[in-house]
Amino acid sequence: MRKGLLLTAASVALASSLTACGGSSSSDSDSGSGSGSDAKPKIGVILPDSKSSARWETADRKYLSEAFKAAGVEYDIQNAQGDKQEFQTIADQMITSGVNVLVIVNLDSGTGKAVLDKAKGQGVATIDYDRLTLGGSAQYYVSFDNTAVGKLQGEGLSKCLSDMKAKKPIVATLNGSPTDNNATLFAEGYNGVLDPQYKSGDYVKGPDQSVPDWDNAQAGTIFEQMLTSEPKIGGVLAANDGLGNAAIAVLRKQNRNGEVPVTGQDATVQGLQNILAGDQCMTVYKAVKKEADATARLAISLAKGEKGETNATVEDPEGKREVPSVLETPVAIYKDNVKDVVDDGFVTKEELCTGKYAALCAKAGIK
């Protein structure tokens, strides 16, 4: 894998409680009272899809919309639904409509770069949201410390294997999409934890494969093939909750769910339910509201012609440049602190504690 971003700022100290990734292709646009000038701030946001993670529509759209409305700025949020051509079309429409700032979550760096360069050429300020566009020209980047996310996943799997007193477990890895630089950073984080375990012989390195486009259906097929080639897999490092659930579904067919610890990321309802049921050992909560609010503040400042505030710098290894950034801190979630995600308002008790999960929620202190 290519080298990912290098955190170069000393300060990445934003308090974080906890989040990570789906929705419709409809746009969400609104205008507020504005600033009263002729050049009224207008912000465009392009989300990537609704397939790779539920967060894009259930969390990011919601929080960004709320922040823009509260600030009284005009905005347009659209979802490209994984279509690169549609991504570019949306960007063209937003630039033509007069956005002052364009915020994108790229589908890949090539498409993202083309859009960012076009926006720059039209004098539109740009922000990479959640994923850095390698070789791109975004003026700012807002995300989480994604290497730290991967480190939490590696440490989480190690903790769960230790708790189970696993002896030389074979560990399978379901990496994220090879076109997503975040997946590269996650892998740097968890491989930094697991590689020494492989070297010492405490763990055995098993099948290791990336999942194109974070596609959960493909992840299920890939994991079935992994189990066929190595039936004694004893642990699964899955890069997000969707991939983790795909592995759990396969394990369930063999009545091995709960016996093989599986990681995740994004603190989705499904992932948290799997943790409560004992089928998933942990997830990583990235407080999307913090990320969205930081992005909204930055975008609003830029739209008004003001300088944005940052707390870090990351290096774009392909563009050979340092990008002013805002980075939030991820948090590991296990069964004993699932309650924290509910208390934080990221998911509700009503959506999490349905049916058979009601009793599990009560046991976990979610009331």
From TrEMBL:
Q: Where is this region: Disordered?
A: 19-44
Recorded protein name is Sugar ABC transporter substrate-binding protein
Primary location class: other
| Signal peptide (from-to) | 1-20
Keywords in alphabetical order, please: Signal
- Tell whether Secreted is among the UniProt keywords: no
Stored InterPro entries: Bact_Solute-Bind_Prot2, Peripla_BP_I, SBP_2_dom
* Compartments it resides in: Cell envelope
Tell me the Pfam families matching this sequence.
Peripla_BP_4
| Span of domain Periplasmic binding protein | 43-307
The UniProt regions of compositional bias labelled Low complexity, in chain numbering, are 19-38
Superkingdom assignment: Bacteria
Q: Which SUPFAM superfamilies match?
A: Periplasmic binding protein-like I (SSF53822)
The organism of origin for this protein: Streptomyces xiangluensis
